[in-house]
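Please fill in the sequence for the structure shown.

STRUCTURE ENCODING:
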């Protein structure tokens, strides 16, 4: 017997990945994954920047870190 899964994304529930991609307006599953990675990366970068601002001596070149963020 096949198992059924559902995907919850931003408060909505979808029956499969294809429906999610189509409903949210992504061109492909790859585009969706890239966007999710970008969001996670941005959140991580903000967290690092916040930590670095409070603890600049823990970073070799804080000015360079700020330019990259």
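FILLED IN BY: designer on duty
SEQUENCE:
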């Amino acid at each position: 017997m096949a198992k059924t899964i559902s995907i919850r994304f931003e408060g909505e529930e979808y029956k499969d990945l294809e429906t999610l991609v189509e409903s949210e307006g992504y061109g492909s599953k790859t585009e969706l994954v890239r966007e999710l990675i970008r969001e996670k990366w941005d959140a991580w970068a903000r967290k690092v920047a916040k930590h670095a601002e409070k603890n600049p001596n823990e970073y070799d070149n804080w000015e360079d870190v700020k330019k990259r963020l």
